[in-house]
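Continuing the series of single-chain predictions for the mutant panel. This is the parent chain; the variants come on the following pages.
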Amino acid sequence: MRIVKLGAALMLGLGLAACASPETASRNAPLVGLLTTPAALPLDVQEIRVSVPKSLRVSEANRYLPSGDIVWREDAPGDRHAQVKAILESAFDRGASSLPQGTVPVVLDVELQRFHALSEKARYTVGGRHGIKFTYVLRDAATGAALTAPKSVDASFRALGGQEAINAERKGITQKVRITEHLAQVIREELSSGGGDPAQAVAMLRTLNRI
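Parent structure:
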C-alpha cells in the first residue's frame, strides 16, 4: 500500500511539473520548488518573520566603502540588527498588504544577508548604491511546510548623494523612506499572483508529507 501511495503521489507530482513553465522548472530544483512558485499562488500572507542574524557584522566606519554586512546610520547609535530588522518588517508588511486578497494562507520567512546604506562620507559626496540582499521562503501557515524553495533576492538600487541627497532630505525623503518603499515594491513583485491551482499544489505537498 505504501508503494502504491508513493507511486500515485509521484505521478501527481509529474503532472504538476509538466504544467509548469520552462522558466520555473529545472532539473536540479527541489520537488517543492517544482510544485509551486510565488507567482503561481493567490497568497494570503498571514505572518512575516524577518531574521537578521547576529553573525552579520556591523560597520560604523565612516568610509566611502565600509566593510561589514550591515551599514546603517540614520537611526541613533544602538542595536543596528534590530534597527534594520524593523525597516525590513515595515517594508515587507507594506508590500504584502498591497497584494490582492488571496486564498492560500502562508507565512513569509525572510533572512537578511546584506544591508548597506551609505556612510555619512558617501552620502554627502559621491553617493553610491544601497546594497541589500535577502533570502525568502513561503511556508504553509497551517503546517509550516515550505511551499517554495529558498530564493535569494538582490534588491540593491541607486542611492542619492551630495546635493541630491540634501534636497531629498529637505522633502522628508530619507534613506529609510527610499529603502522602505523600494523593498515594499520588490517583495510585492516577488509575491504577485499569477493564477495557477494553489489547492492542488498544497494538497500534493501534504500528501507527500504523509508518505
